[in-house]
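TICKET #2291
ISSUE: user wants both folds in one file
ATTACHMENT 1:
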Amino acid sequence: MDSDGTHDARGTHADRVPRPAGPPRVPPRPTQAPGGPPRPDGSAFLSWLRTPRPEAAPGVWRFGHRPRPEVEPEQIPARQLLSGAFIAFLVGYLIWSLLWNGYLGGWWLLPLYAMIPDSWAQPHSFGSVVVVYAYYVAVALGIMIGVGRLGRWGEVWRRYGPPAWRRAAPVDDRPPVPEEDPAQWNALRAAGAADAADRLGSDARAGLMRDVDHARITRAWQGVRSGRHSLATFTGAVLREGAAACLHPSGERDLPGRLAQHDLVTGQVRLGTTADDARNPYAYRGTGMALGPELLGTSLLAVGPAGSGKTGGVVWPLVESLCLHALAGRAAVVVVGAAGAGLGPVDAYDVVVRVGNPESVYDLDLYGGTTDPDEAAAVLAEALVGDLADPHPSGDSRRSTTVLAQLLGPYRAVHGRFPSVPELRQLLDGAPGPLGALRKALTDGGQESLLRELDARERQLGQPGDVGGVLADRVALLDRPAFAGFFDTSGQTRPFSLRALDHPVRVRIDLPQRGHADASRILSRLVLAQFAASVAVREDRSLFACLVLDDATGVVTPEAVRGIQRLRSANAGVVMTLRTLDDAPRPLRSPLLGAIGCRVALSGLTPWDGQDFAEVWGKEWIEARDVTDRQIIAETPAGKAVHMLRRVITGNAPTARAVTVRQVERERWSASELAHAVPPGHAVLSLTSVRGDHAPPLLVDLRNPGA
């Protein structure tokens, strides 16, 4: 034996036995990489897949959810319950003692004498002994049942007995019947793809399938049922690749890491736990709070000061969930925020646009990939001067759109492309050289209609009310040395266009915040305008599209509010955050809160911001109970003794209570409560699904999302 406790193989009997000559034996091929952990057996995945997910109210985490009653049951205080149960026991014992000792007479034995024959009443008769003691037990049980009901012994048993020790229901480890087992892929079997179902089931049992694989293959099967893909192609891919079939174009099957808790069967991501607070409906208290595409389709607005948890508690879990949905072929996500804002690693995205960073691989298409000058002018005008339009909901930027269209149309007709940022700035400034060259090219090409557009633009130059100078000043914010290599229209770079939202793509756009705040706001408005225009013309609207704006300061414009209202019908949504509602124009706050279905008010909100949320959440009718207690004064010694006993049992002085019940209307959450009663790490949120289901404002703890 060696020093480390192992046997030396050189001294074993097997080494001294001569081996027959022959070819050397080849060791078996290893099943995994050396030093790697053993493969799981798939039990964890199957347990996750088979966990029940009952239908629930909007926002409830459905994974393993157990519905609660709509109304909170009345619960007796512990001291009153236990003392009442003990007193009931004493009363029952007293009654039995009085009966047993004959203080109440023998009337309670008359039924016994009436039922038994006289022959059984002989002394030392076995039959009489059995019948008599059985009668005694029946009488004792009757007394016990009576006093037990009066003393609420059943409630004591449920609250403090073994039922209370087993809070969690026993887990049923038995597999479900094959007809109800999701791991059997019965939908595939019913359609004649039994071989593919067997392959997927074997991969699941072998631990080769993940939740993203299950969601991706389910999505591909939905494409087969809708006619977008053929059954033969789907079956061939599954038989060939197994759980890795129908991969995302990136080839990834999961994110580099996860921070939130996800359930890709229901599409939910858990944000936190609904607080056990009296202001929350009883059915929601203590349940997980989760969001999914059916809620994000109505868009979401989160308002809270810096450090309240907007990015870490709300934005990043949603972004992580949307990226998983994109890997499953269900969604396309575009995330816009400052560099280093905590929006996940680069490996979690397919396209990363770093505006102002020379090392950026991708560029941003200034015109959104469109070839229509009027559409490009409308989107660009919204980005440049959308915040200068009339802040009322009826305001627009049609004059700016007209000015840009008068230049973009002729330029594209001559050059076959839209102008770059420096060229657009010169045209808007009215520089005679570029305008003269453009006029000459149009004249030589016989473009009379476009010449009239250019003539109109030249006539407006220098006139009072001309917005060309304002547009030129805004374009100058993008015509900076830091952006010299961006917004190229010559085709020499790799511009990203939001027209790619027809595919399950994951995009992150990093804005240059330091020293370029105005340019960042222009780019945020540009991306929002392009997003609203792109999702409206998608051919396949079964793919959920979502735009995440980590900071929507300066983005809320009349056209943006109208665009958000139209996203629900296009199976798209926007997630926006604001430090305060003061970052949006005052006339647009109510329309913004009305257009967005999911509203989140985080802790630290100001009272005037809370007032806006209180108004949009409205009021509710509640039952107000006015209780008046009047102490009872005992006059006799016996009464005083009874009152003293009552005080010892209940802990309260004997009182006569008068209760007045009335219906009153009050705010669901007042401005003062939102400003001062929301604990740190919590938020009050209301939800609306695309089907119109509502969840009232709920107080949610964002600090324990995986509880």
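ATTACHMENT 2:
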Amino acid sequence: MTPDDTTLNPPAPVLPSRPAPLSVAVPVSGPSGLSDYAVSPLGVPVAVLRDEVRVAFVGRTSTEDRQDPRQSMMRQLGNCKAAIPESWVVVAHFYDVESGRMEVEARGQKTGYERFDIPIARDGGVADLLDEAAHPGRRFDVVICESVSRVARRTFEGLSIERELERSEASLFAANEPITLSGSRAQRILQRRINQSVAEYEVLNTLEQSWGGLCTHVREGWNIGKPPYGYKAKTYRHPNPTKAAKGQTKTRLEPDGVRAETVTQIALWRYHESIGYDTIADRLNADPAKYPPPEPPNPERARGAWGKTSVCEVLRNPKYTGYQVFNRRASRSRHGKVNDPVKWVWSTEPAHEPLIPKWMYDELTARRQARRGSRDGNRPNTHPATRRTYVLRGMVFCGCGRRMFGTHRHNITYYQCWPRSNNRDRPDKYADHPKAVYLREDAILEAITRFFADRVFGPHRRDILTADLDGIHDRTERERQFERERLQRVVADVTRRQNSVLRQAQNGDRDDPFATALRSTYNDLDAEKNAALSIIAQLDATDEARPSRPGTALLDALPYLTLNLTAAPEPLVRRLFEITQVAVRLRDNSEVTITITLPAG
């Protein structure tokens, strides 16, 4: 034999067909007639090579909003029965009604199949299939599915399930793949991996396209889901005429009367008085008729009162700034955990009337981290070891950003930053930080006293404030100009859309339903444009009034005094510091910046 005649995988000798099994098994010796692929360690299990093979069917279908689970499961079983050899018998049925993107540990735990009249006896889900496959007395030899995407939509989960079955010597076959017992397994694996890749590509591509549609929907200012407290949904005709003809609509947000006023009042209390969530909740609960409490989606959870969490949610929701915002929470992927703000999807411009000005929301957000965990007032801590209070508690910050805590040693009060105490086993958090940083309270109070004596109650306070006002830009004027430009863009966009509607209606029959819908759309756009023009006229009238810049009337109403805050009663000093929003910040461990904000009213 020459080298050219060498066959890498010679065919097995042709043997007569195996006789039908007798009532008593008679061992047959001699060549099996199987190929080298079949008898190799990489081939199929021996049980598959017998005359009769027991088969377990595994199926999966999504919920009813995607397809009909009853018809889908019947189709899957029918295709599997048509694909298996004649000597194979389906003896068990395992199927689930759930998403194919779930992790292996969560598979087979759903009970959604009970809601559908599926005429297939169910022996369990995929989790039950894996448990029985590992049992030595299992009822089946192989597993069949319509396609590998029915086992799992993601490749990793599909490979994990396939690997578990392989360890139990229960081969997994698919109806849309060739079922061969003596051919190359490598070829079957190649085709299967291609099918799995295509299945994962299809689901990811569909999800990405759907996600892109949601983001575009939000960037145009349309609302998704239940309106937040303080807003209600205003329904608009769908901008797509075909969908509008089917009755589909979209919604935007609009203020909801007294609830909208409550949201604004919460922000004002927080911004001007810097009070905590509990204090705000107490004020709201003191007059529930004026400040109605929020109602959760589930009425059984309703408390009928404001709580700390509900106040916090109002102050953290960016929709109150007038912008439409989406993807604040990972509702499915991370069980409702709040996403990083960098992942939030914002509308390109304000889409509804704001209840909290954008600049105020940004400043409240910046303050929140500094006040985190700090309670209102200066009452003693509830800890039984508490012996004293600190007049500057919660107002002194280290250069590292941490809030400094009070300590009393040798009859001297200090404010201390000791990062190691709350960053154990995380040395990277204080690698460049001194072991401890101290600030004396009497030194801080002396500096604050000088400020109040000179700039608030001193004789030259008017001149100092006037010099400061000369360098302040009028933020109100900026906001009005921004709002005017936004409304002008709205008017231009509505005019463009009206012209488009007119062009479509020119050639239409007067009694045609489509032309009637176009007229209704034109009227809606005209009302929207008139509302925007009315607001622009109000802004112009406000500009003509020329509001005066902040003056010195507040300082003129105060007496001339010489203060010594170190000698004043601590509760009064604490109240003064809270009203004026005193903040002490240590910079570079050597320079201290003291910020004091005089209230507007």
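RESOLUTION: both attachments delivered.
EXTRA DETAIL ON ATTACHMENT 2: The chain has 17 helices and 16 strands.
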